């Protein structure tokens, strides 16, 4: 388990500005590093082209801190390496700016979205998180370099760290995402789930999207205890939780229908994360969405939360919505 001495600084508390009523502007920040994963992150703008954001900021971070630390006795070499990486970063940003215009279909038409670029120096995850806060970003997008790989996950990847510390919604792109045809929404009775629904409806979903609202209820009894009860008794015990979950998905269903989306609802009694991931794997899901409560300090860095597990194992891209109120 990652503890308070993991080397990742505590994040600031969730700001109250997110999710203000009547605020329909959309600011997207995309972290790029020149990789295929970064290309997918920029190409995801094609999926929201029908609701173009007000601004897109492309960020490339040169990890100058690590370079300086690794070459303390060779300052000249360190400066030369940083200069070379800075030049390469400029080239990367120019290339990705072109990709963003194409994805937004603005290459030959009048721009509806302002595209900006930032070349920064510092520790990558910390710098991305800080810039997102400074720019009051509504959605932070970055590619995944294999969050399902246990070794890299435990060591702390950039995407995992940013997802843990950012105060705004974070989209981790795991494969090409050029449309939001089928969205799997992992729902529960919390205000964070309601806030995630509000974020999707106000900022992201096209009317053509099909949303599956899935609520998974943990079994009321352990497997051992269940052996001593009849099927009818087990069903009676599960009824209140199932009914509450059914009410949750129906309320969410109405909100998505009001946005013009096609909606399917499901309530299952099973292990929460296993069932959600199985659903994401079995269907043609473009995006898995879950709300997350705002945490500070070492709480964010502990393995085992639902959002952490979904980021780690889901085969599709994952959007963790944090900081939005119902």
What does this 3D model show about the protein?
By secondary structure, the chain is of the alpha/beta class. 41% of the residues lie in helices and 20% in strands. The chain has a ten-stranded mixed sheet, with helices on both faces.
Show the helix and strand layout.
Elements lengths: L26 E5 L4 H8 L11 E8 L1 H7 L4 H29 L10 E8 L2 H11 L4 E5 L6 H6 L2 H8 L4 E4 L8 E6 L3 H14 L5 E8 L5 H4 L4 H28 L3 E8 L2 H11 L4 E6 L13 H8 L3 E6 L4
Parallel strand pairs: 1-2, 1-4, 2-3, 4-5, 6-7, 6-9, 7-8, 9-10
Antiparallel strand pairs: 5-10
Helix pairs in contact: 2-3, 4-6, 10-11
List key phrases describing it.
10-stranded mixed β-sheet; 326 residues; 41% helix; Rossmann fold
Provide the CATH topology: Rossmann fold
Round the Cα radius of gyration to an integer and report it: 21 Å
Counted up, domains total 1
Global outline: globular
Protein name: Putative Universal stress protein
Organism: Nitrospira defluvii
Domain UspA: 26-174, 182-322
Family: Belongs to the universal stress protein A family.
């Amino acid at each position: 388990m990652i503890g308070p001495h993991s080397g990742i600084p505590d994040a600031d508390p969730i700001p109250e500005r997110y999710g203000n009523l009547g605020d329909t502007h959309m600011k997207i920040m995309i972290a790029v590093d020149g990789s295929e994963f970064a290309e997918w992150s920029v190409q995801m703008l094609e999926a929201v082209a029908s609701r173009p954001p007000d601004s897109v900021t492309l960020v490339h971070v040169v990890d100058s801190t690590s370079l300086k630390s690794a070459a303390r006795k060779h300052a000249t070499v360190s400066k030369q390496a940083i200069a070379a990486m800075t030049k390469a970063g400029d080239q990367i940003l120019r290339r990705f700016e072109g990709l963003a215009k194409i994805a937004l279909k603005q290459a030959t038409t009048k721009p509806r979205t302002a595209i900006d670029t930032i070349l920064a120096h510092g520790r990558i995850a910390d710098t991305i998180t800080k810039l997102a806060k400074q720019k009051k970003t509504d959605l932070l997008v970055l590619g995944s370099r294999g969050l399902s790989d246990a070794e890299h996950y435990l060591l702390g990847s950039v995407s995992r760290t940013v997802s843990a510390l950012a105060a705004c919604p974070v989209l981790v792109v795991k494969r090409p995402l050029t449309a939001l045809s089928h969205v799997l929404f992992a729902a529960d009775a919390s205000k964070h789930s309601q806030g995630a629904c509000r974020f999707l409806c106000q900022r992201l979903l096209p009317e053509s999207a099909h949303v599956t609202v899935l609520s998974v209820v943990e079994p009321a009894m352990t497997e051992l205890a269940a052996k001593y009860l009849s099927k009818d008794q087990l069903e009676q015990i599960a009824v209140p939780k199932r009914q509450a979950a059914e009410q949750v998905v129906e309320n969410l269903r109405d909100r998505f229908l009001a946005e013009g989306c096609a909606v399917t609802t499901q309530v299952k009694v099973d292990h929460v994360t296993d069932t959600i991931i199985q659903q994401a794997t079995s269907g043609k899901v473009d995006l898995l969405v879950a709300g997350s409560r705002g945490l500070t300090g070492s709480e964010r860095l502990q393995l085992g939360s639902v959002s952490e597990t979904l980021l780690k194992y889901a085969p599709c891209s994952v959007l963790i919505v944090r900081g939005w109120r119902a």
